[in-house]
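Look over this record as teaching material.
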Amino acid sequence: MLDWRLSCLLLHAAVLLLLSKGERMCPASCRCEGKIVYCESGVFQDVPENITTGCQGLSLRYNNLLVLLPYQFAHLNQLIWLYLDHNSISAIDALAFHGVRRLKELILSSNKISHLHNNTFSAIPNLRNLDLSYNQLQSLQPGHFYGLRKLQNLHLRSNGLKQIFVRTFLECRNLEFLDLGYNRLRSLTRTTFLGLFKLKELHLEHNQFSRINFFIFPRLSNLQALYLQWNRIRSINQGVPWTWQKLQKLDLSGNEIQILDPAVFQCMPNLQILNLESNKLSSVPVEAVAAWTSLTAISLAGNAWDCSPSICPLMGWLRTIRDSKDISMICSSPKSVQGERVVDVVRNHSTCVDMSNVFSTTALVIVSSTQIGNITTRPSSADITDLTRTESPAPTSFIPELPFEHMAFHKIIAGSVALFLSVSLILLVIYVSWRRYPNTMRQLQQHSVNHKRRKKARKQEQDLNSQLQEYYLSYHSNSETMDSLVNEPRPCTCTISGSIECEV
C-alpha cells in the first residue's frame, strides 16, 4: 500500500515536471523572453508548433510565410499582440484568427495581401491596432472591418486603393486614427466616413484628388488634424456650411490651389496650424485672412506671390502672429521684383506704406462678418484695438490704394532740403571766390568781356560777307564782237553787281 502511494506521488511529480518544462520550451531559432517569443530569423514558412501556450506576444517578422490557414493561432489563446509584417502572405483564410479573442494588436504590413474575406477580423473584437499598410488591396468593403468596434488605429497606407465603398468604416465607432495616404483615391462620398464620430486624425496625402469639398466629411466633429498634401487639388470649397469646432491642423501643401475660398476657413474657428506650401497662390483674399482668428503657425513658401498691393492684407496679418515670419516667400510678379523676398519688397519698395492700417481694415472685416461676442481674438497691438473701438462703419472689402497716391511726406521734405543745399553751396563757392581771389575774378570778367567782343566782331564780319555779291560780266561769244573789241576803240560798259559803273 505504501509502495503504491509512493509510485503515485512520483508519477504526479513527473507529470508536473514535464508540464513545467513544456511551458518553458522555446522553438529552435527563436528567442524567448518570459511570455514573449521572437521568431524573426527568416527561415520560417509556417508558424512554429512548439510555442508555449501561455505566449502573450509573438513576432514572426521577416520570414517566408505565404498563407494563413484556418485556426492557425487557435492554440495561442493568450496572445495579446501578433507581428506578421515583412513576409510574403498573399492569402488569409476567413477563420485564420479564430481562437485568439484577446488579441489587441495585429500587424500585417509589407505583405502581398490583395483580397480580404468578409468577417476576417470579426473573431478578434478586442483589436485596438490593425496595420494593413504596404499591401496590394485595391478596394475596401463594409464587411472587411465588421465587428471591430474597439478599433482605435487603422493603417492602410500604400495599398493602391482606388475605391472605398459606402459605410466601409461604419463598425469602427471608436476609431481615432485612419491612414489612407499614398493610394490612388480620386473621389470620396459623404458616406465614406460614416460612423467615425471619434476620429481625430485623418491622412489622405499622396492620392489623386483634383478638388475637395469639405462637406464630404460629415459628422467628423472630433477631427483635429487633416492631411491632404501632395494631391492634385485645384480648388477647395465648403458646400453646406457647418463648423469644424475641433480642427486644429490642416495640411494642403504640394497641390495646385490658386484661390482660397474664405468660406472654408470661416468654418474652422479653432484652426491653429495651416500649411499652404508649394501651391500656385498669388494672393490671399482679405476675407480669408480675416477668418484666421486663432491661427498661430502658417507655411506659405513655394507659391507664385504677386508683390503688388494685393499682398498687403496677408503681410499685415503676418505681423501679428507670434512665431517666426515666413521669410522664404518669393515674389513671382511684377518682373521688376522677381526673385526677391516678399518681406524685402514690401519694406524697401513701399508696396504697403502703412501696414497697420491694412491690418486694421482686416480686423474691421472680422467685426463686420461675425458677431463680436463670438470672436476669439489673439493678442494684437494697441493701435489695432483702438481703431476697432473707434471705427463704427466696417468696410466689406479691402481696396488697396495705388502706389502714386502714397507720396511719402518725408520724401518731399528730403528733396526740398537737397535742392536748397545745392543752391546754397553754389552761391557759397561764388562768394568765397570773389572775396578771396579778386584778381582771378577780374581776369574771368575780362576774359568774358573779350570773348563777347570777339564773338560780336565775328558776327559783324559774317553779316558784311553776306551782303557782298558776286561780280559778273555780260558778253556775246561771237567772232564779230571780238573783232570790234580788238580793232575799234569803242566805249564799253562794265557792270558790277550793285550800282557801280565804269567806262573802259
Confidence is low (pLDDT under 50) at residues 15-23, 358-407, 469-490, 492-504. The first helix runs from residue 2 to 23. The chain is about 25% helix and 15% strand.
